Amino acid sequence: MNALPPRQRLGHLLRSLAKQLPGQLDGLLENARFKDGAAALQRLSDPAHVEQALTRMSPEEANWLADLLTERWAWIAEVQLEPEVAIVAPDELWLGAEAIRVPLSLAAVGLDEGLEAVWEGAVLPGPPASTATLLARPPEGKTPGVARVRAQVRASVKGQRCVLIAQAQVALRRPSVVVSDDRRRLLVQDHTGRPAVGCRLEIGPDVHLTGAGGLVELDVPAQPGVSLKLEGIPAGRIPGGNP
Question: What are phi and psi of 9, to 5 degrees?
Answer without folding.
Answer: -60, -45
